[in-house]
Amino acid sequence: MKKELIYEGKAKKIFSTEDKDVYLQEFKDDATAFNGVKKDKIPHKGEFNNYISSEIFIHLKKNGIPNHFIGKISDTEMLVRKVNIIKIEVVCRNIAAGSLVKKFGFSEGAVLDKPIVEFYLKSDELGDPLFTEDHIYSLGLADSHELSTIKKMTLMINSILIKYFAAKGIRLVDFKLEFGKDKSGNIILADEISPDTCRLWDSITNKKLDKDRFRFDLGEVEEAYREIKNRLTAQ
Ligand code: TMP
Ligand code: ASP
């Protein structure tokens, strides 16, 4: 199935396949934080994130959100539709945490009146800076119609996932999305949705069940990812 390595990121590898419209996405155990400054492996993370992302993509598709997922083909691999990734990281927040606390002085855990959507330039070299819609237009990354589609899709995904996680005893604090354009030029959801890219807190105890356990050396990192996988895949 795998042909050549097209791209290797910090947590995934993308391979071409015999079908020119299909890529294979392989999830790695490698974990990085703070733009690669902190590095380690989290045992079984690749497998957990592949299961978790697959479940979420399936749920989003059922709820009308077009995405690149085709099917899970092994513990750590999924087939995805080929897209050109739009170089914008879209973050959506429901509860204050992370950089909202560090950069803007919100109190951690404060519930936001309405979701905050932010755009970051996807560039490791530049450290993924926060940027505005005008920067996006000037850089030619998306036009206003495309950006409004991306924002609308993000808020729809947020509503769907808040309910989805709540039913599993999880609060969706915030998350990061990436979108791509398929061969017809349609904007679809791509990349992954996992404890690497979301903040997920237990609904009762507020225990962090995501990559913050790795970022801030909170311990029980593998256990947190396993817990999310188990809650999402339990019947
Ligand atoms: P932040 O509070 O550090 O800005 O992160 C917001 C959300 O985005 C959080 O759920 C983690 C996720 N995220 C990524 O997926 N990749 C990144 O490079 C960063 C900085 C955050
Ligand atoms: N993904 C980013 C990094 O590697 C940042 C993060 O998730 O904290 O370094």
Describe, in short, the structure shown:
The chain is of the alpha+beta class and 235 residues long. Helix content is 30%, strand content 31%.
Q: Give the topology string: H per helix, E per strand.
A: EEEEEHEEEEHEEHHEEEEHH
Name the CATH homologous superfamily of the largest domain: ATP-grasp fold, B domain
CATH topology of the largest domain: D-amino Acid Aminotransferase, Chain A, domain 1
Q: What's the number of extended β-strand segments?
A: 15
Strand order of the largest sheet: 1-2-3-7-6
Bound compounds, each kind once, are:
thymidine-5'-phosphate, aspartic acid
Kindly provide the name of the CATH class of the largest domain.
Alpha Beta
* SS summary, helix count: 6
Q: Any idea what the shape is?
A: globular
Measured between the Cα atoms of the first and last residue, the distance is 31 Å
C-alpha Rg, in Å? Answer: 17 Å
Based on the coordinates given, report the CATH architecture of the largest domain: 2-Layer Sandwich
Model regions low in confidence, pLDDT < 50 over at least 5 residues: none
Counted up, domains total 2
Report on the biggest sheet. 5 strands, antiparallel
Q: How much helix is in the residues?
A: 25-40%
Relative strand content: 25-35%
Q: What number is the mean pLDDT?
A: 97
